[in-house]
Design goal:
Length: 179
């Protein structure tokens, strides 16, 4: 009888140790999952913040390349499109950006004014002049930036790929509101 009760006591102790070990393992796993989730979210937030800072800097540089008053009078015949397009292309290539461009809104429609060339266009020397061509699939936040005159960020699927973009409203001395 003494052997049996000693054996049962050993089983109970083993069961208790097994149960405690399982609880500690589960608790450890939960803690690891929670910390990993917070770490991922913090990393993602810092990455997006850093990207937004780079995009903001690029938007202001794009404005300087184009010039403060280039949008005051939109003239298809006299707009320096070729030079500005080449300058924007040099900037995007050096900055590892896909696109740098400006737009205007007229009668609720958005039009390109200046845009960089693709790598293929820059290599071949043949490129499309987008000056005052309608922007066909306009990102929602671009419309919102025109409407609110506030900076907007957006991740979207555009005509030429998936992007994270900044839309920065500017105002010329004459009151034009290019983006």
């Amino acid at each position: 009888m003494e052997l049996i009760s000693h054996h049962q006591e050993a089983n109970n102790k083993m069961n208790l140790k097994t149960k405690l070990s399982a609880c500690f393992a589960a608790l450890s796993l939960i803690i690891i999952l929670v910390l990993s989730t917070f770490s991922y979210q913090a990393l993602q937030s810092r990455t997006i913040s850093s990207l937004n800072t780079e995009l903001t800097t690029a938007a202001h540089a794009t404005k300087k390349i184009i010039g403060d008053e280039r949008h005051a009078q939109l003239d298809k015949a006299n707009n320096d499109y070729d030079k500005i397009s080449r300058d924007l292309t040099s900037f995007t290539q050096a900055s590892d950006l896909d696109w740098a461009y400006s737009t205007v809104m007229r009668n609720g429609r958005v039009y390109y004014t200046y845009i960089n060339q693709t790598d293929d266009e820059a290599r071949s020397g043949r490129y499309q002049n987008w000056y005052l061509e309608e922007y066909k699939i306009v990102p929602k936040m671009l419309h919102k930036a025109f409407t609110t005159q506030q900076v907007q960020f957006e991740e979207y699927q555009g005509e030429y790929g998936r992007y994270r973009s900044i839309f920065v409203p500017f105002r010329t001395l004459g009151g034009a509101k290019p983006m």
